[in-house]
Automatic annotation (TrEMBL):
Membrane-spanning ranges: 12-32, 52-71, 78-98, 110-127
Protein name: Terminal quinol oxidase subunit
Cell compartment(s), UniProt: Membrane
Presence of the UniProt keyword Transcription in the record: no
Pfam families, alphabetized: DoxX
Keywords: Membrane, Transmembrane, Transmembrane helix
InterPro entries listed in its UniProt record: DoxX
Species this chain originates from: Halorubrum distributum JCM 9100
Topology within the bilayer: Multi-pass membrane protein
One GO CC term, this protein: membrane
Principal location listed in the UniProt entry: membrane
């Protein structure tokens, strides 16, 4: 690969990381600024210890989003995002267990989270490759 191609690839990767990370940061901030509402929603879904888990999960999302954006501790950051999504998605977006009126919205949220999980896994894989590739 030429130096020009490599620069272009790096710029594209940076742009992708910034978009993904910034989106996660905004989601986390929205959770944290409406903590009472998010805790109440988690309680309504039967999440145990929601008053502890909601802020902790939002912290995972915030730290992971920031870490991916600036590519610091990228394996840990992507792992934090993945852990958040794996824990939250089936509990909060259980489309299979809600009435017909709510099913479409929950299915959309479930699929969006699965999509974000795919990106987090891809970033984890890239970070893992970088950490094992000699320079």
């Amino acid at each position: 690969m030429s130096e020009k191609d490599s620069d272009s690839t790096e710029k594209t990767a940076l742009f992708g990381r910034l978009l993904f990370g910034a989106g996660l940061v905004v989601l986390a901030i929205r959770n944290l600024t409406n903590l009472d509402g998010r805790v109440a929603y988690a309680d309504s879904k039967g999440v145990p210890e929601a008053e502890t888990l909601v802020p902790a999960g939002s912290g995972l999302l915030l730290g992971g989003g920031l870490g991916i954006s600036v590519w610091k501790a990228p394996k840990l950051s992507a792992g934090a995002v993945a852990a958040f999504l794996i824990g939250v998605t089936p509990l909060m977006h259980d489309f299979w267990a809600v009435d017909e009126e709510d099913r479409g919205g929950e299915l959309t949220s479930f699929l969006q989270n699965v999509t974000l999980l795919g990106a987090a896994v891809a970033f984890f894989g890239r970070a893992r490759e970088e950490s094992t590739t000699p320079e």
